[in-house]
Structure formats: structure tokens, C-alpha cells
Write a structure and sequence with these properties.
It is built from ten helices and 14 strands. The protein has 343 residues and is α+β, with helices and mostly antiparallel strands. It folds into two domains: 13-99; 103-334, Endonuclease/exonuclease/phosphatase (Deoxyribonuclease I, Chain A, 4-Layer Sandwich). A hairpin with an 8-residue loop joins strand 5 (165-169) and strand 6 (178-182). GO terms for molecular function: endonuclease activity. Keywords: Endonuclease, Hydrolase, Membrane, Nuclease, Transmembrane, Transmembrane helix. The chain crosses the membrane at residues 27-45, 51-72, 79-101.
Length: 343
């Protein structure tokens, strides 16, 4: 006489290798995967809806979350869930890994060093800014959110002895003042440029004569994508892309400053097309320039960039200083080689 086995209510169903596997962990893994996928997928939405703009900054956190989820999935031996989780990790890796591999030319000559700093309403520690300038032997400094008091403090720290040229204006009790300092002769070419119509901040443009080679430098300070300002934020980034397209010929070009955008934003990626992002070329990986100085959220995103065309990136880096929520960014470049002619 045979006895038919009856499955008890609530008993887990057999899994691989005949083992019982409760469905709860699979559902939880799937839910976390969907959430991370939605947040990560936001990078392809060219939107001005602020929640989307904010989500687009979370790309590195999504990559870390997916790696953690992959580890948990393997640890729990949810083998069939490894396929979708692994596929998501592969997509994230294809986006993140290129920034960890350097494409610089370390043997190239060090012809030009450019630094950008957001002084945070002029509150940045002027002595530390000056120390960073001297430590990196900076040739061109782009400073945003410069107040008259901040300029006086920088001069007192010795920058008026370091640089021979100053272009731009300070603005009292405001974030709109921008200055470009240079150790080389510099000619302002700003004019009435429509690229500056979408930001209240000054964005000076100068041509720097670097030992006979003209390098065009555009200071950048895009408005932050705060609630109600995201349309102008995207318009300012698109205007910079238009400015980029107007730069014809072989003249080296640099965009330097606070873009208030990361590579997770489609508008920034469009602006950076055809340009070298110094920190990516240097293979520095997850660069974080904001927010610093006692913020509740630890630094997790790069908003400050150095974009160049016609120059060779030799090295790059960033430095956190007191008084500002932005880290300093800097890069060293080699000028394009010029053909010598014999008489």
C-alpha cells in the first residue's frame, strides 16, 4: 500500500538540487534590484524635473549598491537571481570602469596647470587656497563666488604676487562674482556672449598666451538645479555646448569651474562631448568634489570639472579646503606640439 505525500500549507517549494527555498529572499532581492535599476536608469532621462535631476547624481551609489546586492545574492545562494543582478552589475561596470583607467601622458612636458575653486560666498580659507596654488604651481586659477573681501584675503595670502593678470569682477554678498587669475599674459574676450544669459554668475572668457601658444579659457558657474531653477540650469549647460561648437580651428580650449552637474546628467555629458574631462582621463575613478565642510551628506559627486580640447592631460587631482563645500580641482597639461621649420 502506497501513501501519497501531502504538502503542508506554507511549506517552501523545492529549489535547485531538490532543496527547499523560501520565496521571500528572492522577492526582496528583486525589489532592491528594481529600485536600483530605476535610480540608475535615470541617467538617460534628459529631464528638468528636480527629483530626476537629484537621482541622476546617485550613479556611484547605485554601482556600490549593485555590488553589495550581488554579494548578498551569492551569500544567500539565490542562484537564479544571480543572472539579473549580474547583468545589472555588468551595465554599471561598463559605465563606471572607464574612469578608473588612466589615459594621460605622464612623460609629456608640464606646460600649463589650471585650477578651479568655488569660494562659497567668499568664505573659503584664503591661506589654504594660496597654499594649494603654490603646491601645484598653478598658472591659471578660475575662482567662482568671489566677494571683495575674498579677493582681499587672497591678495593678502600672496596671490597678487603669484599672478600677473586678473580678469573678472567680485560681487559683494553674492555668489555671482567670478575671477580668472593668470601667470601668463591674458586678454579678456568675454563680450556680450549669449552663453552667459542663463546664469546670474559672471563667466569670464580669456585668451592666455602660454609661451607663444594661445589657450582660450572659459570660466564656468552654472546655476544650481534647485527647485524652480532646473530649466535655467539645463539651458546654461546647453549654452556652454553651443559655445563649444563655436570654437573652431586648432586653438586649445578649456572650460573650468563649477558646472553644478555630473556625468550622470545628460546635459553635462552633451556639453563635455569632444572634450577631455581631466579627472576621467587621469583615471581617478570616483572623484568627489561636493559637499564638504560639515554637510550632513558626505561628499559623493563631482560638480567641478576641467574640460579641455587640444591639450594633453598629464595629471589631475582635487583638494578639500576649509570654508567651502566644494573641493578644489586642478590639472596639468602639455601644449600641442608645433612643427618646427628650417629656413
Amino acid at each position: 500500500m502506497t501513501e501519497t505525500a501531502r504538502r503542508r500549507p506554507g511549506r517552501p517549494t523545492p529549489g535547485w538540487l531538490g532543496r527547499s527555498r523560501p520565496a521571500g529572499p528572492d522577492l526582496l532581492i528583486a525589489l532592491v534590484l528594481v529600485v536600483l535599476g530605476v535610480v540608475g536608469g535615470a541617467r538617460w532621462l534628459d529631464s528638468t524635473w528636480q527629483p530626476v535631476v537629484v537621482l541622476q547624481t546617485a550613479g556611484p551609489l547605485v554601482a556600490l549598491g549593485l555590488l553589495g546586492l550581488l554579494g548578498v545574492t551569492a551569500l544567500l545562494r539565490r542562484w537564479w537571481m544571480l543572472l539579473p543582478v549580474g547583468a545589472a552589475v555588468a551595465v554599471a561596470a561598463s559605465i563606471a570602469l572607464p574612469s578608473w583607467f588612466a589615459e594621460t601622458s605622464p612623460d609629456a612636458p608640464l606646460d600649463l596647470t589650471v585650477m578651479a575653486v568655488n569660494l562659497s560666498f567668499g568664505r573659503a580659507d584664503a591661506e589654504q587656497v594660496a597654499d594649494a596654488v603654490r603646491a601645484e604651481a598653478v598658472d591659471v586659477l578660475v575662482a567662482t563666488e568671489v566677494t571683495p573681501e575674498a579677493l582681499a584675503a587672497l591678495d593678502e595670502a600672496g596671490l597678487d604676487q603669484w599672478f600677473i593678470e586678473e580678469v573678472g569682477e567680485t560681487r559683494p554678498e553674492s555668489y555671482t562674482g567670478t575671477m580668472v587669475f593668470s601667470r601668463f599674459p591674458a586678454t579678456e574676450t568675454t563680450g556680450e556672449d549669449p552663453v552667459d544669459a542663463h546664469t546670474p554668475s559672471l563667466q569670464p572668457e580669456v585668451v592666455v598666451d602660454v609661451t607663444g601658444t594661445a589657450v582660450r579659457v572659459k570660466a564656468v558657474h552654472v546655476p544650481a538645479p534647485l527647485a524652480g531653477d532646473t530649466v535655467e540650469w539645463r539651458a546654461a549647460l546647453r549654452a556652454l555646448a553651443t559655445w563649444r561648437d563655436r570654437q573652431e580651428g586648432s586653438e586649445p580650449v578649456l572650460l573650468a569651474g563649477d558646472f553644478n552637474a555630473s556625468r550622470g546628467h545628460p546635459a553635462f555629458r552633451h556639453t563635455a562631448e569632444g572634450f577631455d574631462d581631466a579627472h576621467q582621463v587621469a583615471g581617478l575613478g570616483w572623484v568627489r568634489t561636493w559637499p564638504f565642510v560639515g554637510q550632513r551628506v558626505p561628499p559623493y559627486i563631482q560638480l567641478d570639472h576641467l574640460l579641455s580640447r587640444g591639450l594633453t592631460v598629464v595629471e589631475a587631482g582635487s583638494t578639500a579646503i576649509h570654508g567651502t563645500d566644494h573641493a578644489i580641482v586642478w590639472a596639468t597639461y602639455a601644449l600641442p606640439e608645433t612643427e618646427s621649420t628650417t629656413p
